[in-house]
Amino acid sequence: MRNNVRRLAYILLVGLAAVCVYLALIPVYINHITKSGAALADPRIAAGENRIQRGAILDRHGAVLARSVPAENGYQREYPLGGAAAHIVGYYSNKYGAAGLEKSMARVLLGLEGGSKIINLRNRILGRPGVGNDITLTVDAGLQQYAAKLLAGKKGAVVVLDPATGEVLALASSPAFDPLQPAKYIDDAEAPLLNRALQGAYPPGSIFKIITAAAVLADLPGMAGDTIKCTGKLTVNGFTLHDNAVHGPVDFGEAFTKSCNVAFGRYGLALGAGEFLKQVTAFGIGKSIDFELPVYAGNITPAGEMDGPTLASSAIGQGEVLVTPLHAALLAGAVANDGVIMQPYLVAGYRGRGGSSSRRHPEEWRRAMTPAVAAALREQMINVVRQGTGRAAALPGVTVAGKTGSAENPHGKSHAWFVGFAPAEEPRVAVAVLLENAGSGGSAAAPLAREIIRKALQ
Fold first, then answer.
1. From the CB of residue 413, how many other CB atoms can be counted at a distance below 10 Å?
2. In sequence order, what are the residues at sequence separation of 6 or more whose Cβ sits closer than 8 angstroms to the Cβ of residue 183?
3. Which residues, given as ranges, of the chain have pLDDT below 70?
4. Which residue ranges form the domains of the chain, and what is each CATH number?
5. Would you call 206 a catalytic residue per the annotation?
6. How far apart (Å, rounded) are the C-alpha atoms in residues 323 and 328?
7. Cys-Cys with 329: which of 50, 135, 159, 379 at CB 3.0–4.6 Å?
8. Which position among 68, 173, 174, 206 bears the catalytic label?
9. In what order do the strands lie in the sheet with 347-351?
10. CA-CA distance, 114 to 97, in Å (whole number)?
11. Left, alpha or beta for 286 (phi > 0: left; psi -120 to 50: alpha)?
12. pTM score above 0.85
């Protein structure tokens, strides 16, 4: 009799151990599947995920951007800001999968990473629904909604960040989409599912003169004092680079303030491909950014392929140069932060139901230039807004520094750019505004940037 009892006890212990191992392996399997992006293709995994109360996605003040609400057979997601934050939050759908932070942060939101493993195991043993971790973002919901509102009816993007920390305060892309109905937009010719702020590849036009100017101040300081005669065009090896006006004799400051293509084309040629590309690399163009969402790294012609016409064109942000609005904001942020580009980030941290938490701390990404060069550029960018092409970005009582750009492209009118920061004396925000085929950056992008800066500083 005693042997039978002992045998039964052994069987029960083995069975309990097998159940525990099985339950412990479930999150490992889900973790593997979510990493591969194929989680919802397996109906068993999809059903399992639906029974987990995914964590909420919150803005920096605790406002809800995404949350789980009870539904038949588990939970479904709700997005209070709708399309205004869709390109950040993304979507989660049994049928169409996931995108945005719903995809990249899925393991944290599902409680498979960063939460209390003991609590999760206990819930599974007791048959309780799983509970994920809440994620807190650096984004300000009010500023995000405002940026999205200003972009409504346009194609473009806005990025606002804190240049001293790298925190992204707003990241808007237009056209937007309804995160509850992503399938509606798959074949939309306007490409609303494209995150233009992070994956839009645009010629930067004259905002790229920030980089060329930094190279001149660092490597050819004597040339900054020279006067260049602008006749409205520059011919290089049979190629003609056109300007937006005949500026006449201009020094370095006037060339920057008036955005003279002839002068900056000459600066690029004087620097040579090697020195020019060294400065471009220092700003991180073409380098991948470790970010919570996919980011296009940018493009610049390699040194071995950069002839005279290409070098002159690249120095004014044309040719084969391509950047994203996020990287454009980092250009302004570098000047604002004494030459240092901080690592941009969206996720400030998370909080688990068991009391566990994680908080991200600011990190330096690249040193683009010396503090002295950054200080000189700051003055030039202040002059652009005070008396140059960026006057429409000026704010009463606030010193705004900026640079406009009107980037030629093969798809119609020029793209309109503005990058800047404020207050220039102690910068709190850096901004990039890109409007596709909107024409002049000074007349189209600068006024929109002004209102975003006004809102961000309130």
1. 15
2. 95, 96
3. 1-50, 114-129, 354-356
4. 2-137 (3.90.1310.10), 141-349+363-456 (3.40.710.10)
5. yes
6. 7
7. 159
8. 206
9. 74-78, 64-71, 57-58, 134-137, 347-351, 357-359
10. 22
11. left
12. yes
